[in-house]
Amino acid sequence: MIGPDKNKLYPNEHIKSVVYISNLPKRLNVEIGDYTYYSTVSESPENFYDHILHHYEFLGDQLVIGKFCAIAEGITFLMNGANHKMDGITTYPFNIFANGWEKVTPEIGDLPIKGDTVIGNDVWIGQNVTIMPGVTIGNGAIIAANSTVVKDVEAYAIYGGNPATFIKKRFSEEKIDFLEELQWWNWNEEKIFHHLEKLTSDTGLAEFMNKELDEGPFYHGTKAHLEPGALLEPGYKSNFGKGDKANFVYLTGTMNAAAWGAELALGEGVGKIYQVAPLGKIENDPNLTDQKFPGNPTRSYRTSEPIRVVKELEDWEGHSQEEIQKMKDNLEKLKQAGIEAIND
Fold it and tell me: How do residues 88-122 score in pLDDT, each as one tens digit?
């Protein structure tokens, strides 16, 4: 199996509180993407359309919801039919009560139509959220429970409150731009299944971003004792050169380069090699890829974001004492010449 059937109303037959909304009977001016679900325990989830209010066909406004959205119970979509004419002394809708009052029925063009309501892909909407007419919520956004959304929400932003206000971005702008181009929600079922681990882990985004440069695995050599799950972050003293503050964390795709890192790191301890996973984008280490090793055959990289320790590698082969001493002598010569081996 490679996932649930997107054409089933109840994708998990054991859970009757969740439906794929796109499999409900179609409704005019409502478009729902595949895999988007509505979840509720207080009523039948098949009543989703009851939560779209003041949606009148003659106004023509649309509710568009993308793929892979998670919509919790208590959702309310207020559509443009809820708006009153506001440019007069009163906003009271006399015309709807007829009996002579219909003489002030406004033209469609006189009504404050805010446009379509558009929810992007991979959006998570918490419980008891109200979304006002004409709002656009970008891909990957999160709306906190009990919020009232009155203005557009940027992609991969978190909003909450009444009215909902910006809380934070989920990722850096560079990562958001990458995700907007990646558009994983448009992949076929097989590709999504193959990449499920990456899509749901905190290192997956970095793996996708770094794929063209190097798919890994990656290693880090040091004399420090590190536990699995520990984060190595920029800002600490470097293990090399003068031990100045490091603006990057270094890693490699080869055991040989990692061994050099372990053997040449400052300190008196025994060298260690760890398998690591970068949490952000990596780049070629300019110390080893400018004139020294064009093309980066040592697969040496750096990143300005943390890397996570996966595990310590116990069985690795280091260099001979003669090779290590020769390398140290060369580094000392560079130091005497005023050239640091590691230059952030």
Answer: 999 999 988 999 999 998 888 888 889 999 999 99
Task: Measure the CA–CA gap between 137 and 35, rounded to whole angstroms.
Answer: 18
- Which residue out of 14, 54, 55, 84 is catalytically annotated? 84
Q: How much is the pLDDT for 242?
A: 56
DSSP for 48-115, written as a single string:
GGGGEES--GGG---EEE-SS-EE-TT-EEE-GGG----SSS----GGGG-TTGGGGPPPGGGS----
pLDDT of 53-82, one tens digit each? 999 998 899 999 999 999 999 999 999 998
Q: Which amino acid is at 304?
A: S
Separation in Å, CA 203 to CA 43, 178, 273: 38, 15, 20
pLDDT at residue 13 in the model: 92
Tell me the C-alpha distance between 207 and 309, whole Å: 15
Q: Are 263 and 319 in contact (CB under 8 A)?
A: yes
**Radius of gyration (Cα) for the chain, nearest Å?**
28
- For residue 220, give the nearest of 163, 272, 172, 168 by alpha carbon: 272
Q: Is 239 helix (H, G, I), strand (E, B) or coil?
A: coil
**84 tagged catalytic:** yes
CA angle 337, 282, 141 (to 5 degrees): 145
Residues of the chain with pLDDT under 70: 237-244, 289-295, 334, 337-344
Query: Is-contact 289 295, C-beta < 8 A?
Result: yes
Please tell me the predicted confidence (pLDDT) of residue 336: 76
Residue 36 pairs in a beta bridge with none
| pLDDT at site 287 | 76
**For the stretch 173-183, what's the b/e string if a residue is b when 16 or more beta carbons lie within 10 angstroms of its beta carbon?**
eebbeebeeee
Contact by Cβ (8 Å): 177, 189: no
Specify the pLDDT at position 113.
87
What one-letter code names the amino acid at 108? I
**Assign residue 139 a region: left if phi > 0, alpha if psi is -120 to 50, beta otherwise?**
beta
**Tokens at 174, concatenated:** 């560079």
